[in-house]
Amino acid sequence: MRVWRDEPSAGARALAGLAAACAAIGGTTLAVAVLGTQGMSYPGYVSEAGVAGQPHWVEYRVGVLALGVALVLLAAATRRVLVPAALLLLVAGLLAGVSGSVSCSRGCPLPPFQTPTSDDLVHAGASVLGVGLCSLAILLFAVFGRHGPLRRVSRVAILPIIAVGLANAYGIAFVGRGGFTGVVERLMLVLIVAWCLAAAAALWRRGQPASARATA
Is residue 3 part of a domain? Predict the structure, then answer.
C-alpha cells in the first residue's frame, strides 16, 4: 500500500483544517438537532430527528451533510498518506451526502421488524455503509499508515469503533428500534466525529515546522 513519506503539503494541511471545521460544525449541529428533538434518551434511531416536520429536521440534515463534507476533505488531505483509505473516506463522505439528502419516513422502519419504504432503505443503506467504510478506512490507517500522529489517533479510535459498530449492527439486525440500538448508534456517531476532529488535527499539526510543533 502506498504511504506518505514526506511531510504534508500546505494544501493538505489547509484541507485538514477545513475538514476539522466542517466536522466541528456538523457534529455540533447534529447534536443540537438530535438533543433538541429527542432529548438525552430516546428509544429510537438518530435519523428520526431528520424526518420532515420534526422541530430541527433542517439542522439535522445540515449536520449530516457537513460531516460528509468533512470526510471528503479528509480524503483529499490523506490521498498521499494511504490511497485505499482515502478512497474509502471519499465514498463514505458521498454516502453521508445521500443519507442527509434522502430522509427516512416517520419511525425509520427497517426490516426484519417493520416494512420500510424505498426511501427508508436508501437512507439506511447509505448510513450503514458510510459508517462501515469510514470505520474500515480508520482500520487501514491504524494498521498500514505511516508511524505518526494520524496512525496513533487511528489506533486509539479503532477498537472502540469496532466494538460499538458490532453492537450497532447487532441492534439493527436482532433488536430493532429501541433504547439499546439508539444508544449504540449515538455512541458510534460520537466516535466517528471525534476521530474526524483528531485526525484532522493530527494532519494539520504534522504540517507545522518542527520549531512550531515544539512550542505549541
Answer: no
210 pLDDT above the threshold of 60: no
Instruction: Provide the domain count of the chain.
Output: 1
* Cα 57 to Cα 122: distance, rounded to the nearest angstrom: 18
Query: Hey, what's the torsion of the CAs at 76, 82, 84, 89, to 10 degrees?
Result: -40
DSSP class per residue in 68-96: HHHHHHHHHHTTTTBHHHHHHHHHHHHHH
What are the distances in angstroms from CA 115 to CA 105, 108, 118, 172? 11, 10, 10, 14
pLDDT tens across 67-120, in order?
A: 999 999 999 999 988 999 999 999 999 999 999 999 999 999 988 888 999 999
Does 187 fall in a domain? yes
Which grid coordinates belong to 37?
A: 428533538
- 197: domain range? 10-208
Could you tell me if 38 and 47 are in contact, meaning their C-beta atoms sit under 8 angstroms apart?
A: no
**Does 8 sit behind a cis peptide bond, omega within 30 degrees of 0 on the bond before it?**
no
With cell 427497517, the residue in question is: 110
